[in-house]
Amino acid sequence: MLEKGPEHKRGGNSFFTDGAIRFAFNGLEDIRAIMPEMTDEEAANIYIPPYNTTEYLKDLMRVTGGKSTPELAEQLVTKSYETIAWMKSHGINFQLIYDNQSFEKGGIHHFWGGLPVKTENKGVGLIQHLNARAKQLGIEIWYESRAYKLCKENNQIVALPVDKEQFLQTIKKYNDSVQEGSYNPTEKDGKGTKGITPPKSNWALRIEKGPFYVFPVTCGITFSFGGVHANSMGEVLDENREAINGLFVAGEMIGGIFYGNYPGGSGLMSGAVFGKLAGTSAAEYAIRRVTVKK
After folding, report:
1. Which of 73, 100, 284, 285 has its CA at 20 to 30 Å from residue 187's CA atom?
2. Which helix H or strand E contains 108, and what residues bound it?
3. Per-residue pLDDT for 292 more than 70?
């Protein structure tokens, strides 16, 4: 396997992710199947509503404005859980996202948003485990090996200084903009702000009681949304939308799935689903070539 980057930078964007991974599931039993270490006691204190393929596909189409290629969207959604199970079989461990995907009520942790699971130790752990598994399987990875041509024939502060007066003005302006309404962290409650830019659409609460915490924030590139045309098996398509024999694509290099936005956690899932599919397709192609040569 060729890797353009050096070994210490392996994993690309996946290394920096929070590890949240969105997949379709029918209920808690599906979650427990990939997290067998979950005790009956823990399970009794959580509520995770089902998130089936219909809901997943609906979310994907909604956030992309209906532009996601149906064939690719369907493949991502319907293959998501079996890919998660496959990852588990290869030593990838998963955890529940208690911190920002659940809230506690009456002693029960309620998960919301169809995104209850992340990979152990976030993206760092995912990349470490995947590479460890590849080594176990004897897969050789050539780092700093850039493919420069396709030959086609036939086809991650200990202090944060701030301007105190400006800070207080900003807080007052924000507090004054918060609209009345019922706060509900389990859904988009419409409790927003008015008169500030950018506005807060949901979950707007006044900043009135300490302690307060300040965090530095910077922009990051999740992915570009663009990519090459491919079919549902990860084969790259030419200008006539015909498969190019022997050329496969996976991850964020596939175009046609996400447009303008994406359901959180589906980027990692897409990489896994189409990585598995493209890998399978490439292996089958190689076997066919060897058979023909014999």
Report:
1. 73
2. strand 108-111
3. no
